Amino acid sequence: MKKNSVILLIGASIVLSSCGAEDEANIVNDVEAQQLQTEQIAPEAPSIRQQNRERNRQDNDYSIYANEAGFYLSQTATLLEQIAPIFDKNNVNTNKLNQTLSLIEQIQSESESFMNLDRPEPFDGFHHVHLATLIEVDALKRVMSDMKNPIHPLQLTNARVYYENAVQSHKLMEREYLSITEELGIY
Q1: What is the pLDDT of residues 157-169, one digit of tens each?
Q2: Is CB count within 10 Å lower at the N or C end of the chain?
Q3: Between vectors from CA 175 to CA 174 and to CA 177, what angle results, nearest 5°?
Q4: What is this structure's pTM?
């Protein structure tokens, strides 16, 4: 019986030692295979340099659009201020009316070229306010174009309402521009 137990003990130890050796080798192989699979499945993380390039590209797009928007706001504010004197006096003649219509057409021309620019997503709110301003400018042009000589004071009062609405919308557009540029860190 002693002999049987010794043989059984030796056989069990050989089996256990050989199983342990295979498990170690299998574990190493499994870990290596798993690492290879993980590398193939997961995309490579972008480098800091690549992230900075992407961020700088966006910042550059924002800056370019912000500069164009600032220039546009300055131009249209100047043109709107040049329209104001027609409402100060009640004696408006055809010459003054034509000058005012010319200024309104300049605003519309500036707006068309500005609208053709590629607009970054953060400036969508600015765009919506810009559209409201253009609606008021279009209404002002329509009312001013409908005026006939002699120009009645009520026609001028009606046009003044649209002018004041256009100025208010323009001021809202300026506020929206300032809040967006401040949020993006563009001054």
Answers
A1: 999 999 999 999 9
A2: N
A3: 65
A4: 0.68
